Structures are given as C-alpha cells and as structure tokens.
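From the shared-data thread, chain only:
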Amino acid sequence: MKKLFVVIVCGAILAPVGAAAESAERPNIIFLLTDDQGWGDAAAWGHPYCKTPNLDRMTAEGRRFGQFYVANPVCSPSRTAFITGRYPARFRVHGHFAAHELNQARAMPDWLDPQAAMVTRQLQSAGYVTGHFGKWHLGSGEGAPEPGEYGIDSYVTIVSNGPQLRPTDALPEQYWWGKSTGIIMDHAIDFLRRNRDKPFYLNIWTLVPHAKLDPTPQQLAVYENLDPRPDHPAFGRWTQDYYKAADDFRSQMQVYAASITDLDTQVGRLLDTLEQLGLDQKTVLFFSSDNGPEDYHIRNAANAGVGSPGPHRGRKRSIYEGGVRQPLVVRWPGKIKAGVFDGTSVIGAVDFFPTVCALTGVAPPGNAELDGEDVSDILLGGQSRPRQKPLFWEWRSRVAGNPDYAPPPIAVRDGPWKLLTDADRSRVELYDIPNDPAETNNLAATNPDVVEPLAKLALDWKATLPPGEEQPLPPRKAKPQGKPMPDRAAMFKAKDSDRDDTLTIQEYLRNFPDQAEGRRRFPTFDANGDGMLSKDEFITMGGRFKP
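Structure, as tokens:
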C-alpha cells in the first residue's frame, strides 16, 4: 500500500498541469462551507430580510450558480462527496455520523475511510499546506481518526477527534454557538497569516445556521424591529404554504437573520484579510452550504427552520430541490468574471475535487474513479455547457415535517430532467427542472420515452452501491395502560450528568432497564438527527412511549 501511494504522489507532481496552471504561481484554495443555509439566504440571492453586505460583495465579485447540487440532504454524506469526489453511498455514508450504536443500526461505518482519495491529501502531496477549521462530522468517538489522517496539516474542529474549538469538558457557555463563527474565523485568519507565502488549501466549515441558534444580544439587536411576512413572494410557493400556521415566525426569523448576519460579518473579515495580505488575486474562494435549510417541525430546531430554499420544494432530509440545491459562489479576482449569475450550468459537489485539481495543476489520483467532472472550463471561460455526467442521489431515512417533501428515495438529474423513483418503480416522478424548479408538475405519465432510460440509469447506479439497507426498527412493545405519565423533565435532569442541556446516548442509557430497547428508542427521539437529545426532544418525542 505504501509503494502504491508513492507512485500516486509522484504522478500527481509530475503529471501535466490543468487549465489554471498556465501561470507560474499556483492558486490558493479556500472552501467556505456553511451548515444548513438555504439557497436564498442572502440579500443578493433574494432574501427580503437578511442583511448580508459581505455575502453580497462576494457574490458581486464572483460567479454565482443557480443549479448547484450537493450529494445528500444531510451533513456527513454531503461533506463526504466534497472531500472525496465520490457519492457518499459508495462509502456506506447514508446519514450523519453519530454514536457507534446508531451508526451500526443504519448499516454505516463509524467514520469516513481515511484511505480513500481526498482532495486535501492530493494537494498536500503536491506541496500545498492544508488546513481545516470548524465543523468536521466525518467521524468521531472512540477509534475515529483525527482530521490529520485525511491529509490536513493544521486543524481545530468540532464533532471530531483531535484539537477542539471548545473543550469537551468545558462548562456550558451562553451564546457560544452564536460566537462560534468568529472563533472559527480567528483560526482561519491565523492560518492565512502563517502561510501567506506558501500555496495553501483551507476549509472553513461553520456551525451556523445549524440549530440550535444562540445569537448574542448584540447580534439580535440588528433585527429588534423586524416584522417579517411568511408569505413574502421571495420565499416561493412551498415556503408560503409552509408557514401559514407558524405564529412565531417573527421571533424565529429574528434569530435566524441575526445568525446569518454574524456569519456575513465573519465573511467580511475573511475578504478583508485576503486583501490585506495580498492574497486576493492568488486565491480561489468557493462558498456553499452542506444541505437545505432545517425543517420548522423539528421542535428544538425551530429557530433554524425559517431558512429559505427559495422557490424550491423540500428542505433538509429531502432530495427534492430544496434539500439538495444549494448556493454556490466561486470568486477569483482577475480570473473568474465577476458579477455573473449562471442559472444554466448544472454542477454537483462531486465536481469539487476534480475541479480543484484542474485549477491548481495537480493531477487527480488515477485510481480513484471520481464520480464528478472537471468544470474549471465553466469557471474560467465564463460559458455554460451541458454536463458530461448525470448526478445521482439516494436517501434512506425519513423526511421530517411536510409529507409533500418526502420523495421517492432514488433520483437522477440528466439534462433538463430529474427523475425520482422507488427501487420497484411503484412511485415515479419526472420534472422538467429548468421550467419547473418547484417540482409541482409530475410529467412521468406523459413522457414514458424519458422515464424509461432515466429509471434504468438511476437503478443501474443504485446497483453499483455497496449492499446493506438501513435496518428497520422493531415493533414497539405494548405497554400497560392507566399508569400516570412520569415527570420527564425530572428524568432529563437526572440523566444530564454534565449539565449541558443535551443527552448523549451514554447519558440516556444510564439506569435504563433494557439497554437494547434504549438504543432502539434513542434515534426515534433524535428528531433533528444530531446524535444527541435536547430536553424538548426527550420530553416531547419520548412522551409518545407510555409507561
């Protein structure tokens, strides 16, 4: 294995360079990835309330893509695609990495295989200094590799092993989540200052606007007079219908907008630092988010549930457009034409790895079988073109909230068409996406000549994935009736040993009479899928099981 790795490294260094390496100086790469930010969550992208002057500046100085897709509607698999250039299901990463018991229940590994080809390792092997600051969520807990084993030189992360943004034994700190983007950017800016004279690759992966949002009073003050309307036309049909019964939309939007605006402030710090250090013309900045906005029906995530998917159907956990169609801005002053909105090019997260290789002149690994394609010609040439490869999705878990957001589990996008299907084709949906981005007009019945080849394409792709479906939960055990309900608030307090207002699975299982039953119940209470239980989840979701 070591000899093979040396051959790959040498090949990467000596191979012919890509489109961007005509200049003597290789560009730096920064990948700024937010968490659960919607397609429309910036003023420049059509949001009527969020104040985002720095995101707007970045957009005006770069190229924005209107048809960019992540590879999965939740965090861990979405991130897997970016870093590996492959569909996450190829690694059996179907959902978020959680406690090892929960990973096993979903037929998942406990972490992303560190031996897989990684964009970080590929650039590191070619002389780039690599860094990662912020969220990781590609595996943590006992035995999990640190980010350094994935080709990263400097890192301070969270939901990970290794140096942490916040010590695991730290006492609860009010507003820490609201301050987290600034903390992450402090580390990133320090990395830039230390490596300004070297080619570098840097991931800045924020925690915001993932729930549970906790903006400081100063951040909230910006929106103290905000009086938003959920039926604003900028939100599109699906969001307007969604919030008809949301009486607390105003307060939730205040919290959400305050969090987005602080994120924007930190983006401004990054742009200013690049300019101050003379790195502006030397650095390609990618900006996107890992999946669609959170769902309002996830109780402990309500204040993150007002993000905007624009006109698109679905939200986080859905492979309809609102769950997988994300913002993408690429900025490289002097190289990428500024102020362009590209609503035609169809680009996927799996394209990131081969495109970065082309921009930096580093050959991709020859044996990696990357699923994406190099789209550097679209970035540098400024012209759209049809995709050479279709895009695929698979989602094996439930979809929260609105049942209209729960599609068939397998999807393919090829040309203007997007087809969604069950494995047995008992439910098939077909949409002309350029003309129907809201996915309201199912054309499957009237276009069998389109359905047949696309369905075969999707199911043939599905057949290439590693076997192992998600294991169904066993039937609930019948419980005696008539006993009083327990005080679940008191139960939560007794289990919450570190007083951080969340329960890990280990805390949840403490004094649980049937450990196997406890492990079965835990994921059914974990409504937002973050691997922990909030007090609200424990009381509200857990209350469904009567003693």
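The first helix runs from residue 2 to 14.
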